[in-house]
């Protein structure tokens, strides 16, 4: 026979979730959005600087809560420049310009800090 014995409580987790409900969750996402825009702008390869200056963010309400999106509206012929920079692209003469993964590394530090801050809230 297998027996499980659990001790402790979810008091800290429940307290965190209740604070999140009371506090304006959008303000937390708003701060993350601003920090993400700064990180992405700093990491974006610069020629004219237009793509780096074109970062923004949106917060959307969903059935599950809220979602944070980072956007960049700099396009050429309807193609987002950040996609060309991130994944690479072909040229008119048949060569391929290799992409540069700059988006994920730029946001990684922000995600790590957010996870660390949230974990501190849970264990405190």
Secondary structure layout:
Elements: H1 11-22, H2 25-43, E1 55-62, E2 65-72, E3 75-76, E4 79-80, H3 81-87, E5 88-90, E6 96-98, H4 103-123
Antiparallel strand pairs: 1-2, 3-4, 5-6
Helix pairs in contact: 2-4
Give the structure's gist in a few sentences.
The protein contains 4 helices and 6 strands. The protein is α+β, with helices and mostly antiparallel strands.
Assign the structural class, choosing from mainly alpha, mainly beta, alpha/beta, alpha+beta, or little secondary structure. Answer: alpha+beta
Report the order of strands and helices: HHEEEEHEEH
Query: Can you give the helix content as a percent range?
Result: 40-55%
The rough form would be described as elongated
**Strand segment tally:** 6
Question: What's the number of helices?
Answer: 4
Return the average pLDDT rounded to an integer: 84
Radius of gyration: 20 Å
How many separate domains? 1
- Enumerate the spans where pLDDT stays under 50 for 5 or more consecutive residues: none
Strand line-up of the largest beta sheet:
1-2
End-to-end C-alpha gap: 36 Å
Q: What profile does the largest beta sheet have?
A: 2 strands, antiparallel
Strand content: 15-25%
Features:
single chain; two-stranded antiparallel sheet; 48% helix; 6 strands; 4 helices; alpha+beta; 124 residues; two-stranded antiparallel ribbon
Task: Describe this structure as you would to a colleague.
With 124 residues, the chain is an alpha+beta fold. It has one domain. 48% of the residues lie in helices and 21% in strands. The protein contains four helices and six strands, in the order ααββββαββα. The strands form three sheets. Strands 1-2 form a two-stranded antiparallel sheet. Strand 3 (75-76) and strand 4 form a beta hairpin. Helix 2 packs antiparallel against helix 4 (103-123). It is elongated, with a radius of gyration of 20 Å. The mean pLDDT is 84.
């Amino acid at each position: 026979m297998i027996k499980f014995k659990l001790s402790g409580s979810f008091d800290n987790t429940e307290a965190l979730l209740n604070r999140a409900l009371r506090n304006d969750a959008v303000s937390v996402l708003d701060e993350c959005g601003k920090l993400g825009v700064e990180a992405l702008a700093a990491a974006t390869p610069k020629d004219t600087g237009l793509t780096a200056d074109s970062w923004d963010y949106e917060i959307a309400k969903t059935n599950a809560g809220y979602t944070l999106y980072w956007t960049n509206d700099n396009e050429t012929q309807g193609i987002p420049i950040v996609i060309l920079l991130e994944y690479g692209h072909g040229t008119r003469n048949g060569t391929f310009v290799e992409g540069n993964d700059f988006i994920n590394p730029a946001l990684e530090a922000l995600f790590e800090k957010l996870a660390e801050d949230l974990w501190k809230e849970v264990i405190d």
